[in-house]
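Action item from last week, closing it out:
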Amino acid sequence: MRNEILRFATCMLIGLVFLSLSSCDKDETPQAAELGSITGVVVDEGGQAVADVNVTVASLNEEDISLTTGADGAFLAENLPLKTHTITFSKTGWLTVSITVGVDKFDDSNVATADVTMVNASAKISGTVTDSKNNDAPIAGVSVSTGSETVTTGEDGTYAIENLVEDDYTITFSKDTYVTVVKEITSSDFVDGVATVDAKLGADELLRGFTSEDLLNADKWYYNEYRGGRNADAYPHWDWACDYMSTLDFQGAWQEQNEGTTLQIRNGEEDQDNPADLDVFDSFVYGSKLMTEDNKILSIRLRTHDADETAPAHYGVQVVDLSAAQPAAVKVGGNKTYGSGDYADIDFDLSDYVGKEVIIAIGIYREATGDYWKQLVLRAIRFSNQKVEGTNWLPGTEVIEGWKLTQETVRSTMPHTKSSFTGISPVSGNRDNYVDAYRAWRDVDHIGAEWSFVPLKKDPEVFASEGYIIKTRNTAEVSTTVPEAYMYAKFSIASGSNQMTLNTRNFGDNPTYFKLTAIQDNGTVTHIAPTSNTAQEASAAADGCWTFKHGDGGADNPEGYASFVYDLSQFDGEDVTLAFGVYNGVADSGENKLVFYSIELN
C-alpha cells in the first residue's frame, strides 16, 4: 500500500513539473504587436501640394520617426504601434503645424489619415539693438520677442525672427539692467516680406514704461476736446454715444464709468507692495499735442471715487518736450489733490510750450503703499486760450453761426497724418458696454476715433452694421445752414492728396441733406459740391447742401454704397478743416441718416 502511494505521488509531481514547463514555454512566446500606418497630404492655403516638408511622428516610449513629403505633398509613416501619436510638420518659410492622431483615428485596416494645410510664412522681422548710454554701440544678448517667438541679439546687436506671416506684432526688447522697450508694427510695415524694427536701449524712462524713443510714436491729440463717461449731463453734447475719451491711449489701471473715464491706482494683490511715488504716474493717459496761442490752457473736468478731503487722490500733468537736448517729464502746476464726488474744472497753463508739439500726460500718483484705492474721474480734457468750465462748448469766435466751432479751434486743430478711415466697428456694443468696441476703433482707423464728432442737436448711431451714422431729429425745425450733427478733421492738401471720397448710403423714402464744408485757418468757409456721385438719386439743394437717396450697401456689400467724390485742389498747399454735416432739410421727415462707410483722401 505504501509503495502504491509513493508511486502515485511521484506521478503527480512529474505531471505538475510538465505542466509548469509547458506553461512557462507558452508565456515566453512573444505576442506580435499590432501595427498601423499614418498617411496624408500637405497643401498650402490654395490647395497646392507642399513638397519637402519635414514630418516628425512622436509617441510615448517610442523613437521619433522623421520623413519628408514628396513632390505631391504626400507622406507615409509605417509600422507604427496603435497608440496616440503627435505629428509635426515644419519647413523653412512656413508656419509649423502640429496635430494629434489618436487610436480612434485608425480604421479597420489600421490606417489613419492626417491631411494638413500649412500657411506660407516667409516674412521676417529684423533689426539692430543699440545702447544709447554707450555711444549707440550694438548690444548682444537682448531678448527680442513677439510673444510666440523669441530670439537673442548677436555680438553685432542684430536679430531676425523668421517664419512669420505679414501681420500685426508687439515686439518686446529686454535685457537685465535696461528699461524694456516695446514696439508695435502692423502688416503694412512689411516691405517685400521684411519689417525692419531697430531699438535703442539704455534711455531713461520718462513716463512709466516709456522712453523718449517710445514717445515718438505717441497718438496725436488732434482736437481740443475729449469727453468721457456714460451720463448725459447735457444731451446730446455730453452723452455716451458722443464721448470717445476711452479711445485715447490709457496706461495702467483705468475704466469707463458713468461719471467719466477713471484713472485708478493699480491695486491688484501683486501691486499693493508698490512703493508710494509722487513723481511717477501710477496710471495715466497721454498724447502728442501741438501747442499754440489758441489752445495753451489745458482744462480738466474731474471728480473722484474712493477719496475725500482727508484722503484725496493725488494727480497732475506732466509734459515731455522731445526736442529738448535731454528730454524729461516736467510737472506743470505741481502736484494736485482732490477728494470729492462733485465735478471741478482745473486748468494748467502750457504757455511755455507754444510753438512746439509735446507729449502731454495726465495721471494719478500712488501716495501710499498697501491697499491703496483711489480713482480720478476724467469727464473732459479740453484745450483753449482760456479756462473752460462746466459742460459748455469751447469758447471763441464761431466760424459759422450756430456751429459751436470756433476760429481758435480751427486754427489749433492738428492736420491729420492718416488718409483712410472706416465707419465699420469691428466690435459692437451698447450704452452699458462699449469700451471694447471703442478701443477696437484704434486698430482700424475708425472715424469715431480719428475725426471729431460734434452733436449740435442729435446723437449718432455708433454701432450700426452699415457704418457710423449721424442723423437728424424728427422735427419741424428746418435748416440747411446749421447741421444737426457733423464730423470734422484737418488735412494738409497737396497734389496726390487733394481728392476726398465719401462712401455712404441712407434709409427710407425721405432724402438726406448733407454737405462737405472746408474751413481755412483764416476763417474762410467754402461749401464743396461733389464732382461725381453714384447715388440712385442725388441733386444740389439750398446753401450748398446735396440731397440724395441710396438704399444699397452693407458691411458684406461694400460695392453697394454710393460714392461722392470731391475735388480739393483749390486748397493745395494749405491745411484745411473739412466737415461733413447732416441737415434737416424737410420738416417732420423722421430721422434722416448719413452713413459713413468709409472716407478716403487721395
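Closing note: The helical segments are 2-27, 212-215, 407-412, 435-444, 447-450.
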